[in-house]
Amino acid sequence: MLTILIGMSASGKDAILRELVANHGFCEIVTTTTRPMRKGEVNGKDYNFISRKEFEKGIAEGRFLEYRSCNTIWNGREDVRYYGTPKMQLNPEQDYVAVVDVQGAKDYVSYFGKYDCFVVRVNASEEVRFKRAKRRGSFDNDDWNCRLAADRLAFAEENTAQTDSFAVNYSVANEGDKTVAEIAERIAIAADTYGRKDHSEIDRNPCQRWGEWREVSHNQLLAELKEDVSVLMNNILEYENLLQNLSKREPYPDFDIEKGLKHIQLF
To answer: Which of the two residues, 64 and 244, has the higher pLDDT score?
Structure first.
């Protein structure tokens, strides 16, 4: 199972990732970037740090399963930074974790398969995120403003909405009221449970979606519930009509029409 952490800048994704790796047996997918290395980071562990020229060569050769560029301002100068994940094969017996953006998560799901990916959104208020970013050893105000603008676009509702091919499976709040260890443990348990599901049932029965861990707005939940109830009621009416029609014909030897109708009425 591959757990994918997404969230706005300084929401705490990297800290959660390190906890999952250190204490829950996850293996980190180390992504590649052209951004400057921050204080305390280790090349090959936190990221694979390479030059812009080398990254662009990798793009041309098709070596990345996903990548993105980010326009920013650093030390008063415009800059373009790349982030990406090299193509790879995963061991199905191992749990993995990666930090990417929303589009990267979609590319992961497309590449590895949606039932082998568990997408987790890490949420934190802008105030909390700003304080965390300031504590980093390489804070730049212009760069931070560029990140805020990019986050608002990337996490707009139309970009994170559930589709047939993508969904945020779990959401956690990381405002500082819970420790990183507590949050990581919740994610690890949820990912393990998700990985044990028979996901074929989710496709056949829309109501199975409600067994997944998703924290969304009440309006979105209500809209999805109405949609699921509508589908369920249509199915019930179809079965009821079928049984009524069968009751007018010669019944099957071992098929109890009355029992079938009573079963439907239980809904």
So the answer is: 64
The pairing of strands 117-123 and 2-7 is parallel
| Helix H or strand E segment including 183 | helix 180-195
Residues 6+ apart with CB under 8 A from 109: 4, 117, 119, 165, 166
Same domain (yes/no): 165, 68: yes
Q: Which residues contact 192 (CB under 8 A, 6 or more apart)?
A: 1, 95
Tell me the residue range of the domain where 152 lies. 2-211
Domain total in the chain: 2
Residues 175-214 as b or e (16 or more Cβ within 10 Å = b): eeeeebeebbbbbbebbeebeeeeeeebeeebebbeebbb
From CA 155, how far away is CA 124, in angstroms rounded? Answer: 13
Q: Do 203 and 142 share a structural domain?
A: yes
Residues 121/11, Cβ–Cβ less than 8 Å: no
**Residue 73 corresponds to which tokens in the numbers above?**
């301002």
Amino acid at 180: V
pTM as predicted: 0.68
pLDDT in tens, 133-160: 988 777 888 888 888 998 999 999 888 8
